[in-house]
Amino acid sequence: MSQKFSFELKATDGRARSGVIRTPRGDIRTPAFMPVGTAATVKAMLPESVRATGADILLGNTYHLMLRPGAERIARLGGLHRFMNWQRPILTDSGGFQVMSLAELRKLTEEGVTFRSHIDGSRHTLTPERSMEIQKLLGSDIVMCFDECPALPAPEEEVARAMRLSMRWAKRSKEAFGERPGHALFGIQQGGVSRELRAESAEKLIEIGFDGYAIGGLAVGEGQEAMFGVLDYAPEMLPAEKPRYLMGVGKPDDIVGAVKRGVDMMDCVLPSRSGRTGQAFTRRGVVNIKNARHQDDPRPLDEECTCPACTGYSRAYLHHVFRAREIISSMLLTWHNLHYYQELMAGMRRAIAEGRFAEWEAQFHALRAEGDIAPL
After folding, report:
1. What's the number of domains the chain is made of?
2. Is there a catalytic annotation at residue 93?
3. For 83-93, what is the mean pLDDT?
């Protein structure tokens, strides 16, 4: 992989940015939404179907893949791209968030975290060095440094302790990552909702030096208003010439608000998870297909949408297969949601390039405020 990782900023409109991340496995148009393939699959979707929605990159999860089927096994089988049949870019998270939120009987030290698997109780240790090793075995194109992400709200002294530990781990992650042409390492800004701690974290990350920078520690219980409060200043603390990635976000209005504030990349399980639970995201807001109002409705979820769920099936059919617990329900609703998210990103990219993001945003909110179409 001789081609370098690079980022080209093509247009700005206010603080909103559009550009392209170039990798040996293909370009990533920004702002970009990354569907989450937690266990080497985007649930209910074939890889080619995910690509058909417009996705340029997927996210894989270090914690889940190290536990099952194992990073060494994936490496022996040719790496994550071949294993899951996705030949475009993959970003892997560090595993830190899942260790803190899912693992049992964990013990945190300066060295790393020792924990028991939530799957079978087996004992594991994850350190910055081991996280880098696992992500190298997986072969991901964008690697995240290992960090600690405390849930919010939390006392400021606890947030400060976790941030400073994460910065020491970031330095160790950079050293362990080494030189890997064609692959990128992102640092993760922490600091909760404290402007001073965010500034301290950003300064340390820039001193270490990364290929891109993530804004971590948000969407962990603080609420949208607090999150936007942090995004009003946090992105501009990070280098303008590098990609900015907001981790774990989110709902459509979260994403639009983040892009407005200078974020380039996002990921979230919400569109796929919601699809499996009967929720569809549309330009008029969320539709709960399980509701009885849809059982005789011959109209599509969204008359302007070109996804298979909307071009081939009625609300009545989608209601029926969800209530009957048919697998096609998860397939169609997940496809629709991922299509909608990618359509959202494409719309913002066009609006930024044309200098009309404020107009586009106003139309986005106005249509959602009108609500879903009236029942027949």
Report:
1. 2
2. yes
3. 98
Nearest to 171 by CA among 217, 210, 136: 210
Is the overall model pTM greater than 0.90, yes or no?
yes
**Does a cis peptide bond (omega within 30 degrees of 0) precede residue 89?**
no
Question: Helices 224-231 and 252-260 meet at what angle, rounded to 10?
Answer: 20
CB burial readout 19-48, b (16+ within 10 A) else e: bbbbbebeebbbbbbbbbbbebbbbbbebe
Answer yes or no: is 376 within a domain. no
Q: Distance between CA 316 and CA 245 in Å, rounded?
A: 38
> Which is the catalytic residue, given 56, 93, 254, 297?
93
Could you give the CA distance from residue 137 to residue 180 in angstroms, rounded to a whole number? 12
Strand positions, DSSP E, 109-263: 113-116, 123-126, 142-144, 184-189, 212-215, 244-246
Residue carrying structure tokens 């849930």: 151
1 within some domain: no
Catalytic residue, chosen from 56, 254, 264, 267, is 267
- The residue with tokens 């569809």 is 280
- 103 pLDDT exceeds 80? no
The mean pLDDT value of the chain amounts to 96
Burial of 259 from C-beta contacts in 10 A (0-12 / 13-18 / 19+): buried
Q: Per-residue pLDDT tens for 203-224?
A: 999 999 999 999 999 988 899 9
Start-to-end CA distance of the chain, whole Å, equals 56
DSSP labels, 219-230: SSSS-HHHHHHH
Q: Identify the sign of the CA torsion 309, 312, 315, 321.
A: negative
Residues 262 and 213 placed together within one structural domain of the fold: yes
Least confident segment among 148-162, 184-198, 273-287? 148-162
Strands (E) located in 129-195: 142-144, 184-189
Range of weakest confidence among 86-90, 117-121, 227-231: 117-121
Range of the domain at 247: 6-268
Domain co-membership, 229 together with 305: no
pLDDT confidence bin for 1, thresholds 50/70/90: very low
